[in-house]
Amino acid sequence: MSDRISVAKTYKLYIGGAFPRSESGRSYPVTDHKGAFLANAAQGSRKDARDAVGAARKAFPGWSGATAYNRGQVLYRVAEMLEGRREQFIAEVSAAEGVPAKKAQSLVDAAIDRWVWYAGWTDKIASVLGAANPVAGPYFSFSTPEPTGVVAVLAPQQSSLLGLVSVVAPVIASGNTAVVVTSQDRPLPAITLSEVLATSDLPGGVVNLLTGRTAEIAPWLASHADVNALDLTGAPESIRADLERSAAGTVKRVLRARPSEDFTREPDLSRIRAYLETKTVWHPMGV
Amino acid sequence: MAAPTTLPSALADAVRDESSLRRFLHGLPGVDQVGVEQRAAGLGTRSIKKASKMQAIDTAISMVDLTTLEGADTPGKVRSLAAKARRPDPERPDVPKVAAVCVYPDMVKTAADELKGTGINVASVATAFPSGRSTLEIKLADTRFAVEQGATEVDMVIDRGAFLSGRYGLVFDEIVRVKEACGDAHLKVILETGELVTYDNVRRASWLALLAGGDFIKTSTGKVQPAATLPVTHVMLQAVRDWHTQTGELRGVKPAGGIRTTKDAIKYLVAVHEVAGPEWLNNHLFRFGASTLLNDLLMQRRTQTDGHYSGPDYVTVD
Amino acid sequence: MWEYAPAPESRDIANLKPNYRMFVDGQFVEGTGEPLKTVNPATEEVLAEVSTASKEDVDKAVKAARRAYDRTWSKMPGSERAKYIYRIARLIQERSRELAVLESLDNGKPIKESRDVDVPTAAAHFFYHAGWADKLSYAGYGPDPKPLGVAGQVIPWNFPLLMAAWKIAPALACGNTVVLKPAETTPLSALVLAEIIQQADLPPGVVNIIPGAGDIGATLVEHPDVNKVAFTGSTEVGKIIQRQLAGTSKKLTLELGGKAANVVFDDAPLDQAVEGIVNGIFFNQGHVCCAGSRLLVQESVADELLEKLRVRVSTLRVGDPLDKNTDVGAINSREQLTKIQELVESGEGEGASRWTSACPLPDKGFFFAPTVFSNVSQAMRIAREEIFGPVLSVLTFRTPDEAVAKANNTPYGLSAGVWTEKGSRILWMAQRMRAGVVWSNTFNRFDPTAPFGGYQESGFGREGGRTGLEAYLDV
User: Which residue in C247, C297, B156, B78 sits closest to A236, CA to CA?
Assistant: First the structure.
């Protein structure tokens, strides 16, 4: 055994491609499942949420305007990067979730595979969900799915990595940008994931991660007029209805929490559909 | 290009040379086919009843250019047509007379003799009608002959081949020369829209004819299908309306061929009324080139005045 | 001058009855709410007395819908449901003239619109969705998508029959049962649709139609046994409903207000653009959520276009909705007329230049002459708020980027228009305008095969097409 003192990581927020501390200067201790101290995480504030929404909005035109092929390659690159840091994530997930290494390994592998699955969807969504509409008249009419905009995601509280990936990847696959509030008590894999995102050709601001108290940050996102959609998956049950009421203030698309969602199951298109708008375009046909 | 008729300064530039004419015509706003056809169909649902229908029928009768353009035409046929023009419904003296009788040049003299002093115009097709495929000299000679014979109106055809191949200057020059040859006779310029195919072409040809001095723009010879259609007439009415906006001058429109029923004629009048404007609702600015239409107008007129439906045996076949 | 003689459609065709009752569990029954008198907005005379639902009646209707769902409709093969829905489509076609006249009487819209648009499109919606009933496994929502249960639907007064069709047809096709509340001022055509549903012999309770005011709509959407809520109406009410449903498991779709930009470039087909602008804002008196109420014209062509527009708008005939030559009918209610007048006054107050058609208006009834405001800026209320009347606000732009920025500068996002002869520019604009429907070189086209619905505060969910089925399936 070496008696070398390891270099401990400072866990920070991920906003607009940068890693700032919370503007509030606050942090909170994160422990493993047995209560042993792991690290201090930044305790994101209302203003951090505001900055994250600003960064997500700024990133939206570029990301939604990128080709689907490009977005697919970026998401696949995330999987590649994740694969390269597989061991680190197994250790972090194991510590965060209190699962044996073997279980943590399967969760990390599933998370990597999930990125690959969604990477493959980027350039198929429009063909599967779009349509040429056979209207009764001399018009060409087509409908095409478009990203709704900035999506606020309250990540699952339990599944610190696989759950997080399962709710974030479908948001950005179609071109939305995301402001994510990570699992409150298990935030460290999320922060490490942000390091992966930052080195995966994902433009800054496409995914923004906030650690902290979900119940403190979520209401500001739910009421923010520049947020288009809200995923309540990780919202504490006691405030879900309030958040939804607040989201109604600007008619946000709300994805309600699904009772005991099992992220190890094969996903379907529903999370992609939840953040899409259908745009129908008409044009006359004539000479 | 030939010297144009006196043009308002705003448009004089357009006819300076061939390339400026092309630029002008291609700079006109496009026409969306579906849009114009929809508008024409929509306006076609106007329901004209009672007094307004009676007024429409009389207006339409007064706008008819009663036409015979057959190889089999004879002086006898033309004389009976002239009689019909003077008194469309012999039993009903209050029926207005038609605007003109339209014949081939060699029939002009017969028609002119029959119509002398009636106020009914004698129109003659000319310029190697209907194809227009001859030399300018022959077309001019054709025109001069018609006018000498007594035609007060000349219906010329444009060179569609030249138009479709983009030789706008040639088409323009021909119209200018024919207009000169007409002297005091009014010139109607037949675009033969059925051969121009697109509404963009109809709009360009309309403006070209107006720039060159045509008093009327006319849809068709009647020898090519489709002849007059409602949406084509809409586009031409828009042209004379816009011409008026830009120059203050009033020019006319004449749909010809295929208008056979009162119902159709009224749709055209509604279009004149609402697309060009009420000031076009007279035979100085709007004509129907037709033959069978007149009898349907007369039958429907009787239905209006008699209160029951009429039949073909109660109007004269000439 | 040539004046068109009046050409009125006979009101006898509407088979107007002195009393109408609500339709619950397959029967027309007396509601226990305060009866309402529905008024012809063109004459201000009472057309009929309509019994309304009380809160207890809402419960009865929902229970009937639940019974019908549990016992018959959810168990019936899709192929059988389809035949019922096809029957409704055919019956609407058979009674189309009656429905058209009734709609114009109750709503005030011109007969040519109810005859040529509302009623045929309503029939088309039933016909289209009927075919889906036994093909849902092909719709892309998995092998055997399930219905939601009882749908509570609340619809507005601007297209009373058509909105009922947009709501009921997909609900039934997907296997749901329905309780529908028509608008307070326009209940009649929905109740004739109930007759049609009776004639089509639908099992009792599959469709229930309960007239009433907003409180009955609120009671319906709040009812604990309703599984799905669909609302078309104002953004204000849509937000209230979304709040009401917070924390429940009810699926919600909203089709709300709009302030659509209709963008005209200098290379547009101008005459057709003028028609599209007119159709965009004066169709249905401007009572259209997707109305092209903000005209954005490229500066280089603004004067020419505005002149053409004024000439064209001057030819619009405002008056008796039953006259076949009427282009613009009556404003649906005094309340709506007051709102329009108030916003028009604010436009004048804020310094926009008002031009109003000199067309004659009837002495009685609720009418408003077509009005065009120029010199409008984005900050004015008439450029931001939905007027829902025959009032157009004209703004200008210089570059495509400016056009997009101004078009998108609204919390709404229902529809947009673009006029240009340049194909690549159309696609560029269509991609950038944040709206659920983009009409290019046309406006206000609707079809059951083409999904319709909004971005942002114009609501969520789509109606029509394969996409529209999602709203009524548990997916």
Answer: C247
For residues C374 and C436, membership in a common domain is answered with yes
Under CATH, domain B25-306 is a member of which superfamily?
A: Aldolase class I (3.20.20.70)
Q: Per the CB < 8 Å rule, is C450 touching A270?
A: no
DSSP C263: E
Return the closest-CA partner of residue B130 out of B293, B231, B286, B256.
B256
Which residue of B35, B46, B238 is in closest CB contact with C4? B46
pLDDT tens track for B169-227: 999 999 999 999 999 999 999 999 999 999 999 999 999 999 999 999 999 999 999 99
Q: Which helix (H) or strand (E) element contains residue B151?
A: none
- Domain region containing C228: 11-255+455-474
Confidence of residue B8 (pLDDT cuts 50, 70, 90): confident
Helices first, then strands: H and E counts in chain C:
16, 18
Closest alpha carbon to C313 in C267, C263, C357: C357
User: Which of C235, C445, C465 lies closest to A139 in CB terms?
Assistant: C445
| Sole residue written with tokens 């073909």 | B312
Q: What is the ipTM of this complex?
A: 0.97
Q: Which of C113, C174, C289, C386 is catalytic?
A: C289
Distance CA C31, CA C21 (A): 7
Torsion of CA B220, B225, B231, B237, to 10 degrees: 0
Between CA B137 and CA B146, with CA B142 as vertex, the angle to 5 degrees is: 145
Angle at A195 between CA A191 and CA A196, to 5 degrees: 115
- Kindly give, in sequence order, each residue whose CB lies less than 8 Å from that of residue C149, ignoring residues fewer than 6 positions away: C66, C69, C74, C176, C177, C226, C227, C228
Consecutive H or E run containing C364? none
**Position A195: which residue type?**
E
- Is B254 designated active site? yes
A124 domain residue, yes or no: yes
